[in-house]
Amino acid sequence: MFLTDLLPPLAQLTPVEQDHLDQARQMQAMSFAVHIPLVCFGVAFPALVVFVEWLHLRTGDPLYRRLARRWTRVMAALFAVGVITGTILSFELGLLWPQFMASFGDVFGLGFAIEGFSFFLEAIFIGIYVYGWDRLPPKWHFASGFPIIFTGFLGSMMVIAVNAWMNNPGGFRLEDGEAVDVRPWQALFGNDYLWHELVHMYVAAYIVVGFVVAGAYAWGKLRHGRWGRYERTALAIPLTVAAFAAPVQLLVGDWAAREVATHQPVKLATLEGLQRTTEGAPEHILGWYDKETGEIRWGIEIPKLLSLLAFHDPNATVQGLDSVPPDDRPGPVNTVRFAFQTMVGIGTALALLAVVTLWVRWRRRGLPRSRWFYRALVVAGPASVVALICGWVTTEVGRQPWVVYEVMRVDAAVTGAGGVPVGYALLALVYLGVGLGVWWVLRRLAAAPLGGAGDPMEVAAARGPGGADADGETAGGTAGGS
User: Fold this and answer.
1) What distances in angstroms separate CA 71 from CA 66, 253, 414, 470, 475, one per listed residue?
2) What is the pTM for the complete model shown?
3) Most buried residue, 195, 284, 299, 472, by CB count within 10 Å?
């Protein structure tokens, strides 16, 4: 028997009397905005750490071992923070949206079960990896990093699969307003909407991690003049990864936009502020949607470009906002438009920076020397995080007013309990405390000696004859390089 067999038919689920729906949505959005960058580090950063350790095994260069060990500490610290934010998100789903969880839990519950199992395995192998540096044979320690990469991928894939299902629900039938004939595997993995979301998110993860880590070392070069071989290597590896990923994301973004045009045409109309269904629809760059007239003000209009991008046909018909009743339109329209255009603008700028990076490295066999390049890297780190969050705002706000697209509305899923504003305020304080804690931990890790206090093997490996650093500098001269 399915859980929904014990519930009222969905047709009887009327909007819940809740005076704080907007606060509940904002509370969930704040948690996503805090957690999603940590997901990127959970997905992409372990792969960078394991890659650097492989470089050490292949070359015997102690610099790579030292870098991998320092990044391991950062990886463990961010995983611990991700545990906090992920746990909060899990509780919020049940506390803020009980009707959604109760009505459809047996459809997508398998995904969350696999995600939880992956999380526990990931925690186990992170513990083995962190404490196994001097306790396991080098090849076995290297091998212990692969389960971290796999479980990070698998767990986040399950969450993305649930989100894809919310955007394009399937794997069940509605009979008299009730979900029956539930097929969880089909709902999660037979969903055409999953694959572009999955690829889009994973490419974004490597872009964010690559530019954030490279930006940290670029900041050290500009602010403190730290630029030994250690710093150059620590910047070049993540920057190269991000430089390859950023141009690819433009192609993936085109794929994602065409899937949205097919499965969620009203969301596409919201992204572009297209009021009326139009053949050969234009694209507006920038501008403000005027809800009174349904026109874009102060935007740059490019004729037929929207039809060309969405359907690869300049004369294709694009569905407008007027195709559905006002209550079924996403909104606010300008919030979705601003988030989407910010994501695209930053993504394009990062792709251009990536092309410059790859061109200079190919032509000169080294990193660019201009200070402006490193200033751009410092900006690129936080900008990539902003683009990431804007992408999720586009996805989630663009699906409104539905929590399950065209099946259940958000106002039917929200809790009827009071106290949401109090919980909102407390959660903001929790995240403020967590943010300060992360800043303090990362500052302590950055200030630690390169060899690591109390780690004579690392200190010996890091130093050459006469106490010199392995890359020709004293360990103290490059301390805090990460």
Assistant:
1) 9, 30, 41, 18, 17
2) 0.86
3) 284
